[in-house]
Amino acid sequence: MFDIGFTELILVAVMGLLILGPERMPIAVRTIGLWVGKIKRTIGGVQKEIQDELRIDEIRKKADDNRKAIEGRMAELQAETDIMEAPVEVAQEHQAKETEPSIGGS
Questions:
Q1: Closest residue by Cα to residue 15 from 34, 30, 1, 29
Q2: Which of 1, 16, 35, 72 has the smallest set of CB atoms within 10 Å of its CB?
Q3: Residues whose CB is less than 8 angstroms from the CB of residue 94 and which lie 6 or more positions away in sequence, other chains included
Q4: CA distance 35 to 65
């Protein structure tokens, strides 16, 4: 994340020692360490939430794609069913006409 080398860290430590003195330096380093830890945990939590949201969006997209594919297949099956039922309905109508008693008494 930061491009800080060993020499820069030594320089910061020496400046901190000169500015804060040997009595307050350990307390300051400990406090800075706690802050850095909190910041890292916060950033890690935010990254995890973002990854979870991306995963949820991906799952929703896949579910939507699957739903569309199923609906398309259902429409195809309905069309095939209609095609197969048409001759049966015609035959049933024809049979019903043949079995109706005629009004003329034949």
A1: 29
A2: 1
A3: none
A4: 45
The average confidence (pLDDT) of the chain is: 87
Contacts of 28 (CB under 8 A, 6+ apart): 16, 20
pTM over 0.85: no
Placement of tokens 């109508």 in the chain: 93
Distance (Å, whole) CA 24 – CA 32: 12
Which tokens is 11 given?
Answer: 């320089």
What tokens were used for 15?
A: 């400046």
Residues 6+ apart with CB under 8 A from 25: 16, 17
d(C-alpha 93, C-alpha 64), whole Å: 42
The helix (run of H) or strand (run of E) holding residue 52 is helix 6-99
The contacts of residue 20 (CB under 8 Å, 6+ apart) are 28
